[in-house]
Amino acid sequence: MRAALYARYSTDLQNVASIADQFATCRSFAAKDATKIVATFEDAAISGGSAANRPGLHSLTRGAKNGEFEVVLCEALDRLSRSQADVAALFEDLRFYGVKIRTISEGDISELQIGLMGTLNALQLRETGRKTRRGLQGVVRSGRHTGGRVYGYKIRREVDAIGEPIRGLRDIDPGEAEVVRDIFRRYAAGQSPRAIVSDLNRRSIPGPRGGSWNASTINGNAERGNGVIHNELYRGVLVFGRQTWVKDRRTGKRQARTADPEEIFRTEVPHLRIISEALWAKVQHRYAENTLSSRGPSPRIAVRPRHLLSGKLTCGVCGGPMIRSGADQRFMCSWRRDREKLARTKGREIKSAEIEARVLAAIKNRLLAPERVALAVEEPRFTARNGARRIAQARTKLDSDIAEVKGRAERLVDQIADGVLTGAAVKDRLDALEALEARRTQIEGELIQAPAASVVALHPRVAEHYRTVVDSLERALARSDSEAAAEARDLVRKLIETVVVTPLEQRGKFALTVQGKIAALVNQDGENTTKLGAGVGFEPTTFRL
Predict the structure, then answer these.
(1) CB 536 within 8 A of CB 375
(2) Which runs of E-coded beta strand occur in 446-540?
(3) Spatial separation of the C-alpha atoms in residues 363 and 226, rounded to whole Å
(4) How far apart are the C-alpha atoms of 15 and 11, rounded to whole Å?
(5) Are 409 and 438 in contact (CB under 8 A)?
(6) Percent composition of the chain: helix, strand, coil (DSSP 3-state, to 5)
(7) Residues with Cβ < 8 Å from 104, sequence gap 6 or more?
């Protein structure tokens, strides 16, 4: 019997030799019944909580599908998966391919072991998580940090009585702590996070990750406790369990979820306090006021952009987004504020009216040129006709097959009824009749599932509609307060993927690169047009102005 070996260990903290040890044990076990090892598969330092992110297990499944072996041999069922759902699905897949699962611990695996051991492994996985959390709570209770490096602190290295390192010890870093105090004082005095980080970057002060600062580093997320002004460690309080992590079985990725407030664990660590309680309270009060005053419409309600190119412009020098600035409505690189050292545009700005006029002219004269529109309209029409023709041919073939099967079945019935066939010949014909009926049922099922051969035609005047829309864009956009202007603006924004703005050597001159899609104009009339896939004329088109 041909066998494939599978081995896995969970984390990079375990012994790398674990894979080799598992394979050696499996080889010894296989030698007892003369099982031939034809393949080995492994997943190193990958959790058994999900099968989605394990390349070795996926390769094993492909090998089983291709008939490369008849049995999978591993040390225990939990090596394949600790997830009850995953191990059941893997068992069903392998059984479908004619492959058995055999383990050293449980022997040949059947439905009974899948149900019993799958449940036990899932419970063990949950219990491991509970014990890990309990251990981390003990670390926090002792005043030690459970995470990685935190800005404002440095790692203190000590060993215990037996020479093992004591993890989680922190000391205040004087230089970084002064930066933290400066941030809190400025924020409490009324400065915005954007203004604070602009000054920090101008002074070449490295951020928490060694690079530049940005506003979100300071603001963070109040609910999750991240961001400088929300980190309670700066006030001498160590917090654990603000969020929990749940693994998505389909992707193997972890997703953060806000924890139950009753599960959040806090410990006083006065030796790690950097700012006073009064300063902390003042900053939190100002943040709450800012949040309340800036609270606009519900995030679930889509807000229609007021300007044609809002969110569509990118700086061609540093890659930063461009934002509207000043009373005279100019666009400038936002990184000029947040990351002054990285924003190399030297304050160059472009007038809103100028860039909108140039982009609109490019869309009208180049992206929506009559010949391009005609090609974009005709190509999907041609594709739809070909698809309908193929469907009609397939349905005709099925109709012909079922007619033949019916005719043969009727002839057999007539022969038996007329007594033409007797004895063993009748039994043979009855078997043939049963096979024909089975084939008939199969063909009828295929006919039911086969799509109808119909073509949804494009509106016959869709090309003319395009030209009308293009001609009216400028007139509609000129009426800035009208509903027609808003609809025209929405249509143009759908056509534009992005606009890259690059300053030229000559003062006040800019090069524009516009990437757009004509497909956004398709399906404007839901009753008279059809949804179109990618085709000639619908791929992204780039214009340099």
Answers:
(1) yes
(2) 496-503, 510-516
(3) 43
(4) 9
(5) no
(6) 50, 15, 35
(7) 25, 26, 29, 73, 74, 75, 76
DSSP state for residue 204 in the 8-state scheme = T
What does the angle CA 402 – CA 403 – CA 405 come to, to the nearest 5 degrees?
A: 65
pLDDT in tens, 311-359: 788 887 777 788 777 656 778 777 665 555 444 445 567 777 777 777 7
| Dist. CA 251–CA 438, nearest whole Å | 40
Domain ranges of the chain: 2-136, 170-293, 382-449
Q: How far apart are CA 102 and CA 122, in angstroms?
A: 19
Q: Whose structure tokens read 């540093």?
A: 318
Task: HSE, CB side, 13 Å, CA atoms: give it for residue 430.
Answer: 8
Whose CA is closest to 364, among 476, 460, 531? 476
Distance, in Å, from the CA atom of 367 to the CA atom of 376, rounded to the nearest integer, reads 11
Q: What is the pLDDT of residues 172-214, one digit of tens each?
A: 999 999 999 999 999 998 888 988 998 999 899 999 888 889 8
Nearest to 116 by CA among 77, 166, 149: 77
CA–CA distance, 202 with 262 (Å, rounded to integer): 43
| Alpha carbon 361 to its chain's center | 36
Query: What's the CA dihedral at 433, 436, 437, 439 to 10 degrees?
Result: 160
3-state SS record for 374-427: HHHHHHHHHHHHHHHHHHHHHHHHHHHHHHHHHHHHHHHHHHHHCCCCCCHHHH
CA pair distance 273, 107, nearest whole angstrom: 57
Threshold 0.70, pTM exceeds: no
Q: Which fold has domain 170-293?
A: Hect, E3 ligase catalytic domain fold (3.90.1750)
Residue type, 351: K
DSSP state, 81? -
Considering all CA atoms of the chain, what is the largest pairwise distance in Å, rounded to the nearest integer?
107
Q: Which of 410, 404, 412 is nearest to 429 (CA)?
A: 412
Residue indicated by tokens 């700066």: 234
Query: Helix count (H) and strand count (E) of the chain?
Result: 15, 20
CB crowding 184-205: b at 16 or more within 10 Å, else e: bebbbeeeebeebbbebbeeee
Amino acid at 484: A
SS3 at position 131: helix
Tokens matching residue 270? 């006065």
**What is the tens place of the pLDDT at every residue in 240-297?**
877 666 666 666 666 767 767 777 778 899 999 999 999 999 999 888 888 776 555 5
Residues 94, 3: contact at Cβ < 8 Å? Answer: no
The helix/strand/coil state of 257 is strand
The candidate with the shortest Cα–Cα distance to 108, out of 64, 67, 74, 59, is 74
For residue 103, which amino acid is it?
A: T
Contact 109, 95 (CB under 8 A): no
Distance CA 460, CA 524 (A): 13
Q: Residues 70, 36: contact at Cβ < 8 Å?
A: no
Q: What CATH number was assigned to the domain covering residues 2-136?
A: 3.40.50.1390
